[in-house]
Amino acid sequence: MADTRLVPAVGERDDGPLRRAATTVLRPFGDYRRLAWLWVRAAAQYPLSLVLMSLAVTVGVLTQVGAVVIVFGHADTLAGFTVYEGLLVFALASSAFGIADMCAGSVERLGGHIRSGTLDAMLIRPVSPLVQVAADEFSPRRLGKVVPALVILGVALANVDLDPSPATVALLVVTMVSGTLICVAIWVITGCLQFFVAGAREAANALTYGGQALTEYPLAIYGRDIVRSVTYVVPLAFVSWQPVLLLLDRPDPLGMPEYLRHMGPVVALLLCVCAVLVWRFGLRHYRSTGS
Amino acid sequence: MRVHFAVYARGLRRHSTYRAALVAGLVTNSVFGAINAMVLLAVFSARPEINGYDATDAVTQVFVGQMLITVTMVISAAPSLDLADRVRTGEVAIDLLRPVSLQNWCLAEDLGRATFGFLFRGVPTFLVGVVLFGAVVPSGFVAASLFLTSVVLASLVGFALRYLYALCGFWMLDSRGVWAVSGLLGPVLAGMILPLPLFPPAVGDVLRLLPWASMVQIPAEILLGKESPTGGGVLGGLALQALWAALLLGLGAWLTSVATRRVVIQGG
User: Fold this and answer.
1) How remote is the C-alpha of A17 from its chain's centroid?
2) How does A215-237 read in b/e, with b if 16+ C-beta sit within 10 Å?
């Protein structure tokens, strides 16, 4: 491809400090985009397989939705949430996890890169290794999860008591972005465990996929201790639970402090900084297997 | 027979090498079991009984499901039999040269894997459920033997289904799409995501008769002493599992012979 531009021009002068700063900050995103596009083109070589696998992922989401509907059908309300309010929690969590999985889910294969030595190859390329690991085998089939989750989000929003103001829309967008960032950061941090413990991948799944399973229902049903630990230790509560309390203007069924529901973006930023630091720490302690 | 036993032992040993992965898997299965169990407990605290299931039944079934993951591999969305990749790469040609049946060879190895997984990952996971959530344990020697028989039959059904998925590769060249679909639908049909009695009765009753139910739902019913979908209590449930195992293994044997007659291996 002829696209060799790093970033679009930002400053007026050719080589001003602003432009240099922008280049440094935006460069990983441009690299990521190019690598991801490469994998999209690779996946498009097997269209039937791609369609089948996207459909399979979609069916997976729909079965989860079915389970949520059946569960609410038997219980009527869970933690004071009706089925559509429950679906709102489900859809926000599911789309944030879906987008995060699409963008950074490949980090969980870090152990494989270490074992087979492909990480060494990545280290000598002039692109951030985190970008390379995250973009590795980027697959559009994961849209099969994001798209139905967004549809469910729309259905849920249309059926809950919400005031369709610009503030609500802004809140939804902020929630989505910070939720996705939290999930990406958790993915990177748990992936980094594989620098130190071979075979940590499946234990990391307990946090990543387990976290997704946990946040699909109103968190209050799990009781105070679990909600505290997913608020203060692994901040999954900020992906969908706290934002939904804010959206629906509900009192916290467990009586947690009210300011927590505004903290999503702050938590997301802090966690991303943590993720980058953990990644750097892990990479510094990486020793090649030599194979 | 001796060769099959040797392959079984190799399968067992091969999977006993990855100790860290074993602990990691145990943690993951327990976490998922706990999450599922808590959701169901919330449902049953709103309604104490649903279609003959109470909270203890549901929690027990959740942990039976987690225990049997490594036995039946019902949730694996990626090929969980080496055969699938060997068909794609053509290495299956070597397997076909052996003077033993392809299916029995794979079965012996898979049962070795399942035995190890059941003892060292499945049983501890179930114990987590017993300690934390009060999952039901077999009440005596007879009940335990019946449940173990059901687990063995579940592993046969689990293998037979996955062997058929792998055989699809002979016709489709790449069976990964089949695995992806089965890994997502299988757990629902098996009663792992939700116990099948929680589905609308018309749907649930049909699903309980399908082969996937023999991997989680029927073993759980046998442990809980529920009436089986075919009638005849515990023995009826075992008979249903045995029937599916026999039918699917028979189908596998027949399709193997069809597939090997049409297989073309390129030299090189």
Assistant:
1) 32
2) bbbbbbbbeeebbeebbeebbbb
- A199 contact B CB<8A: yes
Within a domain: residue A1? no
In a domain, A8, yes or no: no
d(CA B14, CA A226): 37
- Distance between CA atoms of A159 and B67, rounded to whole angstroms? 39
How much of chain A is in helix, strand and coil states, percent to nearest 5? 75, 0, 25
* Residue among B73, B42, B33, B263 at smallest CA distance from B162: B73
- Total number of domains constituting chain A: 1
Average pLDDT, rounded, for chain A: 84
Interface test with chain B among A71, A145, A194, A196, by most B beta carbons within 10 Å: A71
- The answer to whether A150 and A93 have CB atoms below 8 angstroms apart is no
Question: Confidence class of residue B149 from pLDDT cuts 50, 70 and 90?
Answer: very high
pLDDT score of A13: 52
CB-nearest partner of A213 from B32, B42, B77:
B32
Contact between B236 and B209 (Cβ < 8 Å): no
With CA atoms as reference, report the closest residue to B60 among B121, B7, B4, B138: B138
Residue A153: alpha-carbon gap to chain centroid: 16
CB proximity list for A198: less than 8 A, separation 6 or greater: A111, A114, A115, B20
Q: Which residues of B touch A210 (CB under 8 A)?
A: 28, 31-32, 35
Beta-carbon count within 10 A of B103 CB: 20
Residue A168's domain comprises: 17-284
Which of B30, B31, B168 is the best substitution to test chain A (most A C-beta atoms within 10 A)? B31
Exposed, middle or buried, B36 (CB in 10 Å: 0-12/13-18/19+)? buried
For residue B133, give both structure tokens.
Answer: 């959530």
Distance CA A74, CA A81 (A): 13
Other CB atoms within 10 Å distance of the CB of residue A42: 12
**Taking the alpha carbons of A221, A222, A226, A231 in that order, is the dihedral positive or negative?**
negative
Nearest residue on chain A to B49, alpha-carbon basis: A74
Q: What is the pLDDT of residues A188-246, one digit of tens each?
A: 998 888 888 766 777 778 888 888 888 888 888 888 888 888 888 888 889 988 999 88
pLDDT at B153: 94
Angle at B71 between CA B69 and CA B73, to 5 degrees: 55
CA angle A169, A173, A179 (to 5 degrees): 140
Q: How far apart are the first and last CA of chain A?
A: 32
- CB-CB neighbors (< 8 A) of B194 in chain A: 67, 70-71
Tokens of residue A188, six digits? 């990177």
The answer to whether residue B93 neighbours chain A at the CB level (below 8 Å) is no
Domain membership of residue A169 (yes or no) is yes
Complex-level ipTM: 0.80
Query: Between chains, do B32 and A210 touch, taking CB under 8 Å as contact?
Result: yes
pLDDT tens, residue by residue, A135-152: 888 888 888 889 999 999
* Structural domain contains residue A49: yes
Q: Report, as an integer, the average pLDDT of B123-129.
A: 93
